[in-house]
Amino acid sequence: MKLSINGQAREVDVDEDTPLLWVLRDHLGMTGTKYGCGVAQCGACTVHVDGVPRRACVTPVGSVAERDVVTIEGLAGAEADAVRTAWEAIDVPQCGYCQAGQIMTAVALLKEVAKPNDDQIDQAMAGNICRCATYVRIRRAIHSAAGDDS
Question: Which CATH number is 35's domain given?
Answer without folding.
Answer: 3.10.20.30
